[in-house]
Write the structure tokens for this entry.
Amino acid sequence: MKRSTVLATFLVVACLGFVRCYYNSEEKLYPPTSSGCEANNVTYSTTISGILSRNCYSCHGSSVSESFGGGVTLDNYTDVKSHVGHIYGAVSHQSGYPPMPQNGPMLDSCKIKAIKVWIDAGAPNN
Ligand code: HEC
């Protein structure tokens, strides 16, 4: 084999290797649907109460909701269910609802989607 052929082959292989690495982006290696996105297999007991406890109980826990949560308690299924018509509007910052979490960053889209999936399913106590 000629030296120039060897060199050309090497360059082509090196380029392909680079392109393959380039396309091994995080999204391809860790598709958001299979890990991290909580819009799959949504249940009240795990997904929804988990989201609410991390992001909302500081104001909407039953011991603090009178002082910090406008009297809205969200740390048990019965109370969550009674406010269910307002939760999605609040977390998705729709007009006519106070944006939640109050004074905090909006929940990420996966969590908002999970809440919607759960509410659309009839907000079951599952
Ligand atoms: C820093 C305190 C705080 C946090 C954190 C917070 N809230 Fe609130 N929330 C309030 C207060 C205060 C009100 C009453 C204010 C009002 O109605 O304008 C309220 C009202 C609400 C209401 C009633 C809305 C309506 O239409 O009357 C809902 C539903 C709600 N919050 C959901 C949530 C959810 C879900 C989270 C977490 C993702 C959250 N909140 C986080 C303070 C908070």
About this structure: The pocket of heme C is lined by residues 55-56, 58-60, 68-70, 72, 83, 86-87, 90-91, 97-98, 100-104, 107 (CB under 6 Å). The chain has eight helices and no strands.
